[in-house]
Predict the structure.
Amino acid sequence: MSDLATQSDTHEALDAFWSALESSPFLMLGLPSQNAHSMPMTAQFDGHHGPIWFFGSRSSRLAEGLASSNDAMAQYVGEGHNIFACISGMLTVDNNPAIIDKFWSNTVEAWYPQGKSDPDLVMLRFDPNNIEIWQADMSLVGKIKMMFGGTMNSADLEGKHVETAL
């Protein structure tokens, strides 16, 4: 995969990431200070480049870990494995009723027996500050090599890579 150099390519990669996240809104989210595994979480967001919200449990290691550090990392793998991202940012608890109402659904309600007033419900706000995106597209030569057991190398991938502040 080659590095992206232009600002328009960076915007294109960011747009591709946000679009992919819309169609498959699942991230692995963790707090590096905890030295613990990340957790699968369903992203809630409204538009590109804004905060990402997660419904969570007050007793989860994520919510409890915020007492010591707000630094968070999220990893994303696109549904077709053609886009990958690693995002750093700040995670905070923000139980704003308007945000909870905005993203509330039957699917979310199934996790909280007492609904929006469930004492275990916590709304986590992730404010991304840096993202690294890899877009992979196998070249024709790469596809042929894979079909016949050939040795792959980086030239067999046509893709893009970008790292940028948000």
Summary: Residues 1-5 have pLDDT under 50 and may be disordered. Helices lie at 7-23, 61-65, 97-103, 106-109, 140-147.
